[in-house]
Amino acid sequence: MVSILRIWRTALRRVHGGWSRRALGFGAVVAMFVVAACGGGGAGSGASRVLNLAMAQGPTSLDPAQFNTAFNWYWDLAYETPISMAPDGSLRPGLATNWGYVGDGNRVFDLTLRPDVKFSDGSPLTAQVVKANLDRNKEKGNQAASRWADKTVDVTGPLSVRITSEKPDPSIPWSLTSTLAGGHVVSDGGLNSRDQLGTHTLGAGPYVLDAASTVANDHYTYVPNPDYWNKNDFRYERVVIKVMPNLNSVLNAMKTGEIDAAPGDYTVAGAAKSARLTVTYQPSLMMGLDLLDRRGEIVPALGDVRVRQALNLAVNRDTISSALFGEYGKSTDQTVVVGQPGSLPAATYQYDPEKAKKLLADAGYGNGLTIPTLTTSYNGQSRVVQAIAADLQKVGVTLDLKNIDYASYSDELRSRKYGIAGIGFGTLPNMHIQGPTLYLPNAATYNPFKSADPTITATYDRAAGAATDQQSALFQQVQRQLVDQAWFVFVTAAPKFYFARQGITGLDVPAVRPLANATWIRPASGSGA
Amino acid sequence: MGRLVVKRLLLSLPLVLIVSMLTFVMQSLAPGDPAKRILGDQYTPEQYATLRAQLGLDAPIHVRYWNWLKSVFEGSMGQSLYSHEPVTTVLNDRVGVTISLVAATLVVAGVIAIGLGILSAVRKNGVLARVVDVVSLAGHSVPTFWLGLGLVAVFSVQLGLFNSGGYIPPERSLTGWAWSLILPVATLSFGAVALIAKLTRDSMLEVLDREFITTLRARGVPERTIIFRHALRSAAIPIVTALGLLLVGLLSGTVIVETVFGLPGLGGAAVLATTKQDAPLIQGVAVYFTLIVVVVNLIIDILYAWLNPKARIS
Predict the structure, then answer these.
(1) What is the three-class DSSP state of A100?
(2) Subunit contact B176:A253, Cβ cutoff 8 A
(3) How many CA atoms lie within 13 A of B270 on its CB side?
(4) Alpha helix ranges (H) inside B152-231
(5) pLDDT given for residue A156 in this prediction
(6) Nearest-angstrom CA–CA distance, A419 and A290
(7) Which residue does chain B place closest to A144, by CA atoms?
(8) Fewer C-beta within 10 Å: chain B N or C terminus?
(9) Transmembrane ranges (chain B) (predicted)?
(10) Which residues from chain A sit within 8 angstroms of residue B262, using beta carbons?
(11) By CA distance, what is A146's nearest residue in B?
(12) Which domains does chain A have, with CATH numbers?
């Protein structure tokens, strides 16, 4: 630095003319600035023990009561759940070491908690705290409320809890994982001062939010929880989640090494691969049409199963899936993807527009049909609906589309003004959890006309109380009925992507629940990342 | 000068009031319901009613506005409907970023544009004049979003000279802070340079043709002195006015630039608040933006009065 200054001073003395001296002087200042800045702070990963992640949005609140699977990383890092989902989709101990149903019928469930666990505020994990958390799901649950409404939680020992369900519920283990709302356990202090839960974390997870180094909706900094029970587990010195709404900005940041991993999107998957990022994906969002008016209350045609089946036959699923999602899309005519729990081994409806026309003619709609249809641009639903509409047009069925913003979408769905609605339904671990939100009569949003099928309902109830080894076959029967009665026209399963820089691992998500946990992410062995 | 400042500040109060009222009405009329957004898909009518009451959303619009105004007079702008953080806390964390970005853009664009404008006026009909014309056209045509991503693609990804985004607070590293603003300022200032350069050139050309300039030259005053001490001072009046108007455009531009570069400023807060229909935050952003415009225009007015003695007298 000193010799650079000396050179500049000599150059300035030797240059004639005020302008040249001033210009050189200015250039010297800029050069010093550049040298200093290049050596100065930057936002890159720097040390390998800092993990930089990106999410498209910040959480509306850090309170686990407002958990949202779209932004699960914010909670994953700080809140451990009684049961954890492993990267292969199996369930493993978290804050609980042991669990299981008592007796037959899947109504009584016992949970044994891990001893000597402390929350980030130093308070101990007890059965009482877990009970308070699970009871809270009923008081102010979002998505958790419907699953916990019929549950009673009792403390049966200092570290043991019993959950009793009025109705058979084989999904209680999943409800206690981080993949659904309601399983995140908050400390007793946090439950007693809920105001701070929106901006602070009070969990027993591997990290705790460093509020002083966090700017809401810009970046969230997590540091290791000194009281975390699993001292042998790998942890970063710091994890920073940066809010980056623009995917191109995320990709650029990954190319320059400022971001290590992020959820992605089909639109930039090709660019991510070209940039030699690791791209992982699984089918995640079931997309197609929800044939809401199955009793034909406002659209009599939809009350006829032949019409509904014709709609399924008229759609070229493979073409639509390939056109919209390329190699990453998976066509399906079921509520799940082939291979997932409860799925049928093969597709039922092969593309056959001629058969579709015949069915429509048999039903008395050979001259055509117009159906009011609701859709929204959120998640690309309207693109799928428009592709389906084009196929249906060829067999004389016109979808009278109304595209609205997502904020109003749920209200409009429930309004019972539309015979059909576009649907983008996230995959769930099993069909039992799917029922109350998708196809049972109490599925308020996606079954506003409260369609009920005795076979579906009865088989669902039997499956809910059946032993684990019998459930799959019974839910397959439910699926069979849903498909044969053509309650939906599911077309494709849109993929959920994760991108990571080379040398970062942990984002291979399981098909049963394609949701990566931020605590899985770590350097690949032998890498310098 | 003191009277000018007081008068301008007093005049700005009704402006802030009107902006806040219009903003409140518009966001209240927008479709969607923050209570439903918070509750998600599964909620009972009772939960919905309870939350709306808790958030004060069940009151008539004029009552809600009056409650908000009262809280402002009490020193608070309310809390975010979602995070429950005080609005002032959220925005105070961000206002410095936007002010840095806008101030740096005004300075950089002003210096470059005025320099270009002067040079092209002095060497009129030369290559530089044509350059200024082309830059001016490009500045109005090139989308900010595209330019920002392009600069990142070249200077960050390809050349590795800059980070692709992010903000380093000056208290952490002064040079890092300045470095982190280079690409965002370059993006935001491109259009500003285009506008100001052309305006400067036109203004300088007009002034350099005046008789008093000819007189100064006849008296043997050095050309540099004529240009910078006499001509520029006269030509600066419309430029200063344009800078004040430009500020409003720059504030709008921060919404895009802060999104592209991941800067935690008011523009990002505006997008976030509007997307989530976080009414108190929307109000806060509107008020902060209005206050920034008021303060900067006050500075412009003071500068204008210094440049133009007639303005001081009037």
Answers:
(1) strand
(2) no
(3) 22
(4) 174-208, 211-218, 223-225
(5) 97
(6) 9
(7) B42
(8) C
(9) 99-122, 134-157, 177-197, 235-257, 285-307
(10) 218, 242-244, 249, 253
(11) B42
(12) 2-266+501-523 (3.40.190.10), 282-495 (3.10.105.10)
Closest-CA distance of chain B to residue A216, Å: 7
User: What does the alpha-carbon distance between residue A335 and residue A488 come to, in Å, rounded to a whole number?
Assistant: 8
3-state SS assignment for residue B232: helix
Cβ–Cβ below 8 Å for B149 and A218:
no
Of B164, B176, B272, the CB nearest to A249: B164
CB-closest option in B39, B47, B168 to A43: B168
Nearest to A41 among B44, B173, B261 (CB): B173
HSE at residue A288, side-chain half, CA atoms within 13 A, is 31
Token pair, residue A151, equals: 């549950």
Which residue from B minimizes the CA distance to A32?
A: B175
Closest Cβ opposite residue B85 in set A216, A245, A253:
A216
What is the pLDDT confidence band of residue A7, given thresholds at 50, 70 and 90?
Answer: very low
Is B94 within 8 Å of B71 (Cβ atoms)? Answer: no
Residue A176's identity, in one-letter code, is L
Question: Does the ipTM exceed 0.90?
Answer: no
Taking an 8 Å cut-off on Cβ atoms, the answer to whether A215 and B163 are in contact is no
B94 contact A CB<8A: yes
- Asked if residues B162 and A38 have their Cβ atoms less than 8 Å apart, the reply is no
Q: Which of A247-256, A458-467, B97-106, B242-251 has the lowest mean pLDDT?
A: B242-251
Question: Which residues of chain A neighbour B84 with C-beta distances below 8 Å?
Answer: 61, 195, 198-199
Residue pairs spanning A and B at CB distance below 8 A: 141
Instruction: Let me know: does A294 contact A305? Beta carbons within 8 Å.
Output: no
Neighbours of B214 (CB within 10 A): 12
pLDDT tens sequence across A388-405: 999 999 999 999 999 998
pLDDT per residue as tens, chain B (314 positions): 777 778 877 888 888 889 999 998 888 888 777 777 776 665 667 777 888 887 888 888 889 899 888 888 888 888 888 777 889 988 998 999 999 999 899 899 989 988 888 888 887 767 777 777 777 778 778 888 899 999 999 999 899 899 898 888 888 889 999 999 999 999 999 888 888 888 888 888 888 888 888 888 888 888 888 888 888 888 888 888 888 888 888 888 898 899 889 898 998 888 888 888 888 899 999 999 998 888 888 887 887 777 776 655 55
Smallest CA-to-CA distance from B110 within B38, B194, B24, B226 is with B194
Comparing C-alpha atoms, which of A370, A343, A368 is closest to residue A357?
A368
Can you tell me which residue has the tokens 């603003």? B181
- The number of residues making up chain B comes to 314
Closest-CA residue of chain B to A257: B163
State which residue of chain B sits closest to A145, comparing Cα positions. B42
CB of B90 less than 8 A from some CB of A: yes
The 10s digit of each residue's pLDDT in A166-204 is 999 999 999 999 999 899 999 999 999 988 898 899 999
Write down the mean pLDDT value for chain A.
Answer: 89
At residue B16, the pLDDT reads: 87
Sign of the torsion formed by the C-alpha atoms of A87, A93, A96 and A98: positive
Report pTM: 0.81
Residue type, A230: N
| Min Cα separation A70/chain B (Å) | 12
Beta strands at A420-426 and A369-376: parallel, antiparallel or unpaired? parallel
**Residues near A377 by beta carbon (within 8 Å), at least 6 away in sequence:** A403, A405, A406
pLDDT digits (tens, 9 = 90+) for A479-520: 999 999 999 999 999 999 999 999 999 999 998 899 999 999
DSSP string across B29-92: HSS--HHHHHH-S---HHHHHHHHHHHTTTS-HHHHHHHHHHHHHTT---B-TTT--BHHHHHH
Token look-up 């309601």 returns A182
Residue ranges of domains in chain B, CATH in brackets: 32-74 (no CATH), 91-313 (1.10.3720.10)
